[in-house]
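---------- Forwarded message ----------

FYI, see the GntR family transcriptional regulator record below. Original note from H. follows.
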Amino acid sequence: MPTLKEQAYESLKEQIMEAEPGTLFSVRKSAKELGLSYTPVREALVKLQNEGLLEVDSNVGFSVLRIDMKAIQNIYQSRECVEHYVLPKIIDKIEEDDILVLKAFIVRQKRAMEQKDISAYTEVDAEFHVYLIDLLQNKQLSDFYRGVRSQYRIGSRKIVRKHSYLPIEEHEKFLKLVEAKKYEEALECMYQHTSAAVERMKEGYVQIGL
């Protein structure tokens, strides 16, 4: 049974992921909407702030993270640090069952693209990468990485995606190399995937003038 704080956290995080950057969240209003007391809601909002999804607004409480070019660079630098540390340690430990799970993510990602559901697309993309990071079984790193990916999802909903099938193709190529036990090539494939992703993000950022 989740605690009141956990209930508030999950509900608020879901709202944040669908909200526009800069959207305001106050303890009073959120508590009323969720039917909870102030304390668990305040604690949940502070946790979400610590995860980098909210910023403190001195006038009303909190606002959804505003993404600019510097924030995009910071997000991707953090992502690269984790992935470059973790992937070499787990690449040869990816088993057949893991590959089946990862392939299922790709199927869901393709479906999201066909339905033009960018929110679902970015969520599944994050799940693919988080699954790989979780294979190291380092909770602190996994939690940090989840926070980074959540920040990315907030910004990516505003980005024009001209090449949205390319990440899917890169995921498929990575898995084929892992299945063939070509681990060095698989690592290079994923590193290039991350580098390409940041360039696509920057391109979309410039196009919509964020």
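H. also flagged this: The domain at 4-64 is CATH 1.10.10.10 (Arc Repressor Mutant, subunit A).
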